[in-house]
């Protein structure tokens, strides 16, 4: 258990660097890898990375969170803040793994409902605060079959209310410690905070 994300990040980097389990090369990229890593952050509002020597783009993380919250998947706007988004697009104009487009808008790869996954979770937890069914699906079987460059790293987000506090459990198929996790944690904890505000819990 870590109080803040910065302490968590330093510990994860040290652990994977010094105690890695495998050396692998998915898609030709050599990596050090640990499987089934789990960590907890006690205070989700301590979500930003403050690590000397680690460049962290506060402007970019703000833009990315706004992009998600708008439910967008177009690469045009977000590429002004990080050009790599165009490079990981399968069609050059949209991003398949944009979380917001799967959470805050109906998405054809998730279901064919008109309701958003976000609204479904709010209704579920208002109806039954003890529910274990409040799960937002990010990755879908179609992604593995169709996408080439751009398969979501996140599998699911599970929201649970226990002792009048909202917990968020995130399941990843892979998590890039060097670049990706520094921006994923602020996004996930922002979703958690917004859901807690909607539900009126801590």
Averaging pLDDT over every residue, what do you get? Answer: 92
The Rg value, from CA coordinates, equals 17 Å
Coarse shape: globular
Compute the number of strand runs. 5
Order of helices and strands: HEEHHHHHEHEEH
Strands in their spatial order, largest beta sheet: 3-4-5
Q: How many helical elements? A: 8
Estimated helix fraction: 25-40%
Terminal CA distance reads: 18 Å
State the low-pLDDT regions, or none. Answer: none
Largest sheet: 3 strands, antiparallel
Given the helix and strand composition, which structural class is it? alpha+beta
What does this structure look like?
Strand 1 and strand 2 (31-33) form a beta hairpin. The two termini are 18 Å apart. It is globular, with a radius of gyration of 17 Å. It has helices spanning 5-19, 58-69, 75-78, 84-87, 99-103, 117-127, 141-146, 181-199; strands at 22-24, 31-33, 135-137, 154-162, 165-172. It is α+β, with helices and mostly antiparallel strands and 202 residues long. The strands form 2 sheets. The protein has a 3-stranded antiparallel sheet. A two-stranded antiparallel sheet has the order 1-2.
